[in-house]
Structures are given as structure tokens and as C-alpha cells.
Amino acid sequence: MALRTLLVIMRMFWPDGCVGALEIGRKSPRFWNKCINEFLRYYTFDQRFSTEAEARASILAHMRDNLHRTLADDRERADMKIAGASGNTYADHRPLYMKPGVWSKLAQYWVSEEFKKKSAAGKKARQAVKLPHTSGARSFDRRRRDYMEAHYGKLDELAVYKECHTLKDEERKGEWITEDAQKIIVSVQIIPILYSRLAEVISWSVLRHAYFKKEL
Asked: Which residues form the signal peptide (predicted)?
């Protein structure tokens, strides 16, 4: 619930004309603190586990990571709608929760040469990875949190690993993306680095203790 509240706040304060964290930082640097201050009106951090500075830093790190994932999800949903409606563009599929000034800029950016070059570079980099995954723009740490939310706080590392390394299309759904990915499961040689960078783990650990206590 806390993570969804934070996302709603981010969308509410999202400055018009900005398409990513870097641009927000340049054009509207007060955005981050404004979101954190609003969030802390509803949730408080547990002083047994973190200081206020640590809590705010963790919330900021989560917002930056979540911003990229949120935009990727919004674009993917719009792509699906465009595919089913001939002649439509991103501009025709603005989500109700997205401000018009923000969506119009995103709609322009997603068809720009700049975005196409970045997308192509990202695809090339993913293909070069020795152990590719199917997690998309969502980090492995985010996949773990999603699993825990859907399973009442319980975490199954093997299930998360399989979700991140099996195909999603209808014809091959459930098939391993590579033989090496399957061999790791078979030999049970799963190591933490496959799920998230150390920084992400630390960030989530602090964040979890920092603001899952709701103000009454």
C-alpha cells in the first residue's frame, strides 16, 4: 500500500514536459523533496531501524528506480492498445492518472530518434548479456517485492527466478529463455547477484523498515 501511495504522489506532482529522472532533476529539482514530504504526511519511519536522513534517502532511491519502470509499463500498455487500433498514436491513449502535459511530452519522446537510439542500444546490451532475462524494465528486486505483495509477504526465490527467466508469449509461455538459465535452477546454484545489485538490496531493506508503519 505504501508503494502505491508513493506512486500516486509522484504522478500528482510530476512536472509537465519531463520524461525522466534526469530531466526532472534539471527542470524541477524540488520535485523529489516535495514527493517525500507529502508521503511522510501519511507514513512515518521507524526510528529503531533508520534515521530520518536514511529514510528519505531510501524513499528517493526507490522513486528514481520506480520512475523508469512506471514509464516502461505505461508505454507497453499504450503499445498494446495501438496494436489493436489502426491509425492510433501514443497521444490517443493517455491513462486517466497521467496529466495531459506529461503524457503529450512522453508521446513525442517515444517516437523520437533519441528514444529509438537509446532503445536500440539497450536491446543490443541485453543481447550481449551471458544470462539474459525476461523481467523487462522491472528490476529483479522489484519482481521480488511484487511476489511478496501477491503472496502475503512470503518470498520464494526459485519462483521469482523462474518468472524472470521464462518466456511470456502465448506460444512459448513458460519455456526457459536459455539452457543456461534452466541449468542454474536444476543445480540450485542461485546466487544473490542474479536477483539484484547490492545497492538495491540495501535500499529495499532500509526502505522496508523506514516507511511501512502507517500514521493513524
From this structure: 1-21
